[in-house]
Amino acid sequence: MIKLFNWRKPDIKSVTLPDLSWTEGDATKTIKKWGDIDGTMAISLNFFEGTPDIPTLSDINGLRQYYRDAISAGQGALIEVELVELFEITCVRTVLKFPQTPSGATYLTSLTVPFAMCSYVVKIQAPEIDLSGMRDSFIIKKLLRDEVISKTVDGYQNWSLDPYKPDHKGQTLMNRSEEAKWDVRFPSHPLTKSRKLMAEIEKGIGFDQKLLDLKRFDK
């Protein structure tokens, strides 16, 4: 039997993120953290040993339902759940939102890189602070003028929806102002910044060779 020298199993160091000039925070064997200059957004790289929690990559509708169910206790809403190919590895990009008290939302944007017996998750957490409600107000006025939505005694018809399942009725839903097409008008909004940041991470993320040789998650 051939003994392999200088080989170590994958760990938190097996994935590298691009240099974003953020402030580095806590680091352990399973998590590394960074914060932006303003202290309003946070990034983490997480390493998990064992089979990933996600149920499937082959059934995108089933995967989206898994996330709906997972965030329901926190009154979360789906904004995006999509598959992304990086280095011929099928990954999962998610954008979720959770209501804040007394108003606004916190956006959690993630990239899950699953293998058969471990996984990596990049998370971006971005709360609405000073800009809470401004994006919504602007787009509501525009969509009312364009007759895309209408005002009712209960709020606005056709304003809130699940992006993949129009008949889904949840406590919290994506609203039309959170569609990516509006990001260009609101470059400072935390959702816009999160999407842009994740695009930079996907473009510059690095996997070492041991990861590329691992057995893929194939459910």
Structure description:
- By secondary structure, this protein is of the alpha+beta class.
- The protein has 4 helices and 13 strands.
- The strands form 4 sheets. It has a 7-stranded antiparallel sheet, sandwiched between helices. A two-stranded antiparallel sheet has the order 1-13. A two-stranded antiparallel ribbon has the order 9-10.
- A hairpin with a 5-residue loop joins β6 (89-99) and β7.
- It is globular.
- The two termini are 31 Å apart.
- Residues 1-6 have low confidence and may be disordered.
Low-confidence sequence ranges:
1-6
State mean pLDDT (0 to 100 scale). 91
Q: In percent, how much strand structure appears in the residues?
A: 25-35%
- Portion of residues in helices? 10-25%
**Form type:** globular
The biggest beta sheet is recorded as:
7 strands, antiparallel
In DSSP terms (H or I, runs of 4 or more residues), the helix count works out at 4
Q: Find the structural class using helix and strand composition.
A: alpha+beta
Straight-line distance between termini: 31 Å
Q: What is the string of helix and strand elements?
A: EEEEHEEEEHEEEEHEH
Spatial extent as radius of gyration: 19 Å
